Amino acid sequence: MDFIILAQTFAKLEGISSRIELTNILVDLFRKTPPEIIDRVIYLLQGRLWPEWSGMPELGVGEKFLIKAVSIATKASEGDVEKLYKQLGDLGKAAEVLKQRSSSGGLTQFIKLQPKGGGKLTVNKVYETLVRVASMVGEGSRDVKINLIAGLLVDAEPLEARYLVRLIEGRLRLGIGDATILDALAICFAGSQGFRNVIERAYNIRADLGNVAKVLALEGVESLKNIKPSVGTPIRPMLAERLSNASEILSKVGGKALVEFKYDGERAQIHKDGNNVWIFSRRLENITHQYPDVVEAVIKGLKCSRAIVEGEIVAVDPDTGDLRPFQELMHRKRKHDIHEVIKEVPVRVYLFDILYMDDEDLTLKPITIRRKYLQEVVEESEILRIADHIVTDDVNKLEEFFLKAIENGCEGVVVKAIHDQAIYQAGARGWLWIKYKRDYKSEMIDTVDLVVVGAFYGRGRRGGKYGALLMAAYDPKTDTFKTVCKVGSGFTDEDLETIPKLLQPLIISHKHPRVDSEIEPDVWVVPSLVAEIIGAELTLSPLHTCGKGVVRPGVGISIRFPRFLRWRSDKKAEDATTVDEIIEMFRGQLKRVSEEAGREQL
Ligand code: ATP
Questions:
Q1: Given ligand 1 and candidates 414, 566, 584, which is best to mutate, with the most ligand atoms within 8 Å of its CB?
Q2: Quick one: what percent of the chain has pLDDT higher than 90?
Q3: Between the chain's N and C termini, which has fewer beta carbons within 10 Å?
Q4: Dihedral of CA 116/122/124/130: which sign?
């Protein structure tokens, strides 16, 4: 397949503002794509070469290299490339313009290392060359990389040059979510949306969209029905709903439940195959290198050859053995000498689930069975533990255990249904798990994680910077982001300095097709950055689209006095708090207020 088809698709995708159109364009593209390369096309659509979790090197070649490559390929001087880049604010566009201007004459010594073939660019040639560019390290790699890129740019049409440069910079950022790709795959290969569930389940079990699409395109939807987890490929995590009343929680899960500590650390999905171990984060990044101590403990303590288990990695006070808050784990991310940090910030992993063992898929088994397997296979050690838990149908016992959890440095408890249908719902937030967290002593009892969809210029002391961000919740039903509030406080001076840098690569000239907003910010951005927000209370608002019409016609739900707490870089846009959760939180707040009022009248 010619690369120009992909470049033209990128151009179309950039210009549209409706999600239906977005899906249709993808369906069109998939119909034109040979099945053997659909995985590559999907990765490239997402601006990458392989799944995020693969641990393989990503693209992201520095500007200077690229300017050099563009200069070589177009025969413009580096100064001219740089000038045009400054003028247009986009190196991709600059390359496009220069390609239009340049004559199509051949190159001299620079393209010696270019893969043979020349002529038209194909998706395979681009992909394979980009893999070489991304994989090359060490001395001498710089010139080879530049030559490879220049080689591609020589053969590129102007439009292809625009997207090649953005891809190589790691700045394609079309903001196409997995759900949109799944929709398009269902329409294209399964004939209807009816098979969407089969495709989605396959993806939830093996979070590799490229692989799922390839199996679908080559073998059809039937073969996806029997797909099993695969050690080394992450399973999309099951998530919990939230409620703030213990007896309501118990009745919601069917009366009797497994109640576990809700540890305040980093979620870890641990895969083991003999002496090979992979650790994936909540957003499925490969974080194995941060936890060599956990890897060792898992090799020793998991008594089977192949397994996928889940748990929470928690920092431990080296002096007392007490659990430490989530923030402590950040040292593991920042420090380079990991062996030193192992001593400074020791950790434990508290396992709470097992999803696969010695070729048996356990995700469809009830939790009672999974726990039995877990108990049998884990030999506990200083680092490897099984999550503290009780089984109860008694609200008082639940409350007591909740207090014990808080006392032990946890955030609260997770209450889990134990009936026969209590399977592991990969990739879903459902009522089989309900989190019960500590009251933060403010009207708004919990924080929310919202996505930045736009920004407003600042005034006064914030002149020349951004003064506020337009924040949205995720609505999985429509795969859109609905606005909740405009947040302008809680930022430190350092935050204000970094916001423009964070937003710059995400800025687009129009509202993103997956954003539902009635407010017009000064700049729109691709939904990607997630921040944790707290406020005084949830309130009804005619301006915002979150929960619009659910509580009252024409009115949505917003946050009064929202305050920025921190970035949640461990979350993707689709991991943000959902619209339904915010509606549920609003209802919970109404209930608390009326209970208070009732008490006061007595
Ligand atoms: P939060 O922001 O409140 O941590 P979240 O959005 O990251 O929540 P949720 O599904 O809402 O994720 O809450 C469940 C999270 O709690 C899990 O992702 C996991 O990281 C953590 N956790 C800690 N202990 C447990 C446990 N015993 N069982 C399940 N999850 C647990």
A1: 414
A2: 66
A3: C
A4: positive
Q: Sheet holding 389-392: strands in order across?
A: 239-242, 429-437, 412-417, 257-262, 389-392
**Is 349 close to ligand 1, i.e. is its CB under 6 Å away?**
no
Residues with Cβ within 8 Å of residue 518, at least 6 apart in sequence: 483, 543, 544, 545
What values do phi and psi take at 140, rounded to 5?
85, -15
Encoded tokens for 87:
């003028």
**pTM reported for the whole predicted model:** 0.76
Which residue CA neighbors atom 22 of ligand 1 most closely? 262
By alpha-carbon position, which residue is closest to atom 10 of ligand 1?
239
For residues 404 and 413, the answer to whether their CB atoms sit within 8 Å is no
- Give, in order, the Cα–Cα distances in Å from 257 to each of 242, 368, 374, 394: 15, 10, 17, 9
More confident residue, 205 or 18: 205
The pLDDT value recorded for residue 101 is 86
> Would you say the CB of residue 203 lies under 6 angstroms from ligand 1?
no
- Cα four-point dihedral sign 535, 242, 495, 165: negative
Report d(CA 385, CA 402) in Å as an integer.
Answer: 19
Out of 76-90, 262-276, 470-484, which region has the weakest mean confidence (pLDDT)? 76-90
* pLDDT at residue 234 in the model: 97
Question: What ranges in 206-282 are assigned the alpha helix state H?
Answer: 209-219, 221-225, 246-252
- 267 Cα: distance to centroid of ligand 1 (angstroms): 7
> For residue 193, what pLDDT is reported?
64
Q: What is the pLDDT of residue 598?
A: 57
- Is 80 exceeded by the pLDDT of residue 151? yes
List the beta bridge partners of residue 276.
Answer: 273
Q: Tell me the three state secondary structure of residue 450.
A: strand
Chain-centre distance for alpha carbon 378? 30
Pocket flag, ligand 1, residue 266 (CB < 6 Å): no
Predicted confidence (pLDDT) at residue 109 exceeds the cutoff of 60: no
Per-residue DSSP letter, 348: E
Within 10 angstroms of residue 34's Cβ, the number of other Cβ atoms is: 11
Q: Which of 238, 242, 259, 262 maximizes ligand 1 atoms within 8 Å of its Cβ, making it the mutation to test the pocket?
A: 262
- Where do the domains of the chain lie, and which CATH numbers do they carry? 48-169 (1.10.3260.10), 239-438 (3.30.470.30), 448-593 (2.40.50.140)
Q: Under a CB-based contact definition with an 8 Å cutoff, are residues 465 and 499 in contact?
A: yes
Which atom of ligand 1 is least distant from the CA of 433? 29
Catalytic positions are: 262
DSSP 493-555: HHHHHHHHHHHGGGEESS--TTEE-SS--SEEE-S--EEEEE-SEEEEESS--TTTTTSBTTB
pLDDT, position 502? 94
Q: Which atom of ligand 1 is nearest to the CA of 571?
A: 7
Burial of 260 by CB count in 10 Å (0-12 exposed, 13-18 middle, 19+ buried)? buried
- The Cα-based distances of 524 to 326, 574, 584 in angstroms read 32, 18, 28
Q: What is the pLDDT of residue 595?
A: 67
Residue nearest to atom 24 of ligand 1 (CA): 262
DSSP structural state of residue 326: G
